[in-house]
């Protein structure tokens, strides 16, 4: 093959251009610190880079965002639960003091005030929130656990699904006409004839509703009979504050003497149950072969409109229907519904969905971050304190009554009046003895009940702590995986600067040498050899 000068020039230029391209590639690598800048540079490296970048992004999402969010949610939850546990512990301490029968009236008054203050505070931490979401309300993260202000424009029809354990026995002290004693009336009317024979006690069965101050609507009481058929017991309404003469001498004694009666005391939220009705309800028993039907269930449906601030919202606990009413020009509710919302109706079919909020914290791994209100904020806590305060206040009132009668005796010289007052003092002393005994038993039961609520809260705290420990292990693993993937990604994509710098220097030297050699070569022509 004949090699001409033109061929030699073209080959030299091609080689110089190839060397220049190599310099360009190495310069680009030095500038970008990457092995490739387009997929066509090295398809294998490009495919591996896409996979590793995807892994790094996913792990970073878990490690830098999801895990910190989950940890913050659980820390807020744990702090709120610990605060609640502390309040319940303080309640138990006060109730333990109150169970002492040798307290003075002043001591009892102090305990009453302490219990009221703790009762007002016990649900306050239930409205804890994280990033604008309430942490104890399940999927309803936009709805507070409790009412933020007094509510009177929405009526809730609430169905409590209970069992035989909800029925307890209480002792009521019947004071007869002694309850009407005053300095002015002690010697007149029925009060004048009071003696110790009027003082008695009545043991009555009851179901304590989750709320007090109920509407003037008779509740519906349903239970399953032996054939598994739902039956209904009618309840008789009784408003203690406005209708005290309906059941003589009082609703507790009346139900005790009338075993077939059921009376709702709306202002205290107590359902008093006669012995016959009690036996009927206690005869209920669940059939384990029917998974979605609890034949041992007792359903009580009642209505409530007046909610105080910090009352727990029924939709977080029960199957209920909320009806918001149109308001007239005077601000009073009309009979025209504005909005009707059903909540948790599946509960009535035996379907209770656990409203768990879970975060993705790893590859195919989730963790539950929330604790629902029913796990720690039991409506029975405040209702238990209401009972204890009422029992203790009754003792304080009886002690004050006894002091008043004693003081009146010291002022009276009339023999007939002295006899009347002494009979009344004996009656008051008997009522006080009954009251103290009833109060002490009530407080002993209260300690057990509150300890149960504390155990529930402690269990919820333990659950949060267990999940937090698990999250820490996951966080450590994600940190290690993040480091590993970032290292692999760097090894796949990033250049070795020293190696590339040497290659670039070599390419520049080769380029300069090629230019010199080519310059000398093109100076020679064919005429020089002729």
Describe this structure as you would to a colleague.
The protein has 530 residues and is an alpha+beta fold. It folds into 3 domains: 5-59 and 485-529; 62-139 and 356-484, f41 fragment of flagellin, N-terminal domain; 147-354, no CATH class. It has helices at residues 5-32, 43-98, 105-121, 251-257, 275-282, 380-411, 415-493, 497-523; strands spanning 129-130, 133-134, 154-162, 167-174, 200-208, 220-224, 230-234, 236-238, 262-265, 270-273, 298-304, 319-327, 333-343, 358-362, 365-368. Helix 1 packs antiparallel against helix 8, helix 2 packs antiparallel against helix 7 (415-493) and helix 3 runs antiparallel to helix 6. The two termini are 20 Å apart. The model is unreliable at 240-244 (pLDDT under 50).
Features:
single chain; 530 residues; alpha+beta; f41 fragment of flagellin, N-terminal domain; 3 domains; six-stranded antiparallel beta sheet; five-stranded mixed beta sheet; 15 strands; 16% strand; elongated
Tell me the series of helices and strands, N- to C-terminal. HHHEEEEEEEEHEEHEEEEEHHH
Helix-residue proportion: 40-55%
Compute the separation of the termini in Å. Answer: 20 Å
How would a textbook summarize the main sheet?
A: 6 strands, antiparallel
Overall average residue pLDDT: 87
Q: C-alpha Rg, in Å?
A: 41 Å
Shape: elongated
Strand order of the largest sheet: 7-6-11-3-12-13
Counting helices, strands and paired strands, the structural category is alpha+beta
Low-confidence stretches: 240-244
Give the amount of beta strand, in percent.
Answer: 15-25%
**How many discrete structural domains?**
3
Compute the number of strand runs: 15
Number of helices: 8
